[in-house]
Write a structure and sequence with these properties.
266 residues, 10 helices, single chain, Rossmann fold, 7-stranded mixed beta sheet, alpha/beta, two-stranded antiparallel sheet
């Protein structure tokens, strides 16, 4: 007599469970991280961070909340972003020191990969959520890159960092999308929380005489009006979409500068 399959031993570890369910504010075990990868992407090692698989980073003491596991930028995308940023700033004179600001730090994984790709760089990140901040502070302490993580709103803390005149600044801009993303209309860059143009204006006001590069995380479906409007706030811009997911659901970056033009280094 054949045995009948028993009931599923655990709930489906998907975006809903980790972002809106009981696991949202819980620190995930390694098994739960791998369940999320398996259940949602058929890959237990999907959440690769800081150049490591989940067993590797978990063994180093790295820990994530459920919502951070969903919202973090995994290695494959973060490395592509870092590589494109490095190529964009390559025309700036060699040995120029770079500061990379991340106003909405989360896991700091994209910041980590920018630092790996851009020579002579250090990171300064900001995180308002106390729980995310405390975990990420411990996580970045075991990494091989210099990241100063601050607890609080970037807008009030940004000007506390007095940089020498020779520094160039890279800003990774990835605020919460909230209701800005509509599957039919695409991502509206005017409706992120806060709006992208506001972030650009605040950084430019804080460092008016610096070469600034903004790397703005975007979605493949993008509001053309919001993109064109944002481009008027930049001296140069270029959109890049990465082919890591199925067509129509890929992420990318909008690269934009203030105070210089790539290729000229000025």
């Amino acid at each position: 007599m054949a045995l009948q399959a028993g009931p599923r031993q655990h709930p489906v570890y998907d975006r809903t469970l980790l972002l809106h369910g009981p696991k949202r504010d819980e620190v995930l075990t390694l098994e739960e991280v791998q369940r999320y990868g398996s259940d949602s992407f058929s890959d237990p090692d999907y959440i690769r961070l800081y150049g490591m698989t989940p067993p590797q980073w978990h063994a180093r003491g790295v820990r994530l909340l459920g919502r951070t596991a969903v919202e973090c930028t995994r290695d494959s995308l973060a490395n592509r972003i870092g590589n494109d940023i490095a190529g964009t700033v390559a025309s700036i004179p060699a040995m120029t020191p770079f500061v990379v600001f991340d106003p909405f730090a989360g896991s700091c994984n994209t910041l980590y990969w920018i630092l790996r790709n851009v020579p002579n760089s250090r990171g300064i990140a900001f995180e308002m959520d106390a729980q995310v901040y405390e975990l990420s502070r411990k996580n970045v302490a075991v990494l091989d890159r210099t990241i100063e993580l601050n607890h609080g709103d970037y807008a009030s803390l940004l000007t506390r960092h007095d940089l020498t005149p020779d520094h160039a600044i890279i800003v990774f801009v990835a605020p919460p999308w909230g209701t800005a993303l509509d599957e039919d209309e695409g991502l509206d860059l005017r409706r992120t929380e806060p709006p992208i143009a506001q972030i650009i204006a605040r950084v430019a006001a804080a460092y008016p005489d610096r070469r600034l590069l903004f790397a703005i995380q975007v979605y493949e479906k993008l509001s053309a009006d919001s993109l064109n409007e944002l481009a008027t706030n930049l001296d140069w811009s270029e959109l890049r979409i990465y082919d890591l997911n199925i067509a129509g659901r890929n992420h990318g970056i909008l690269l934009g500068t203030r105070g210089w033009t790539p290729g000229l280094g000025q």
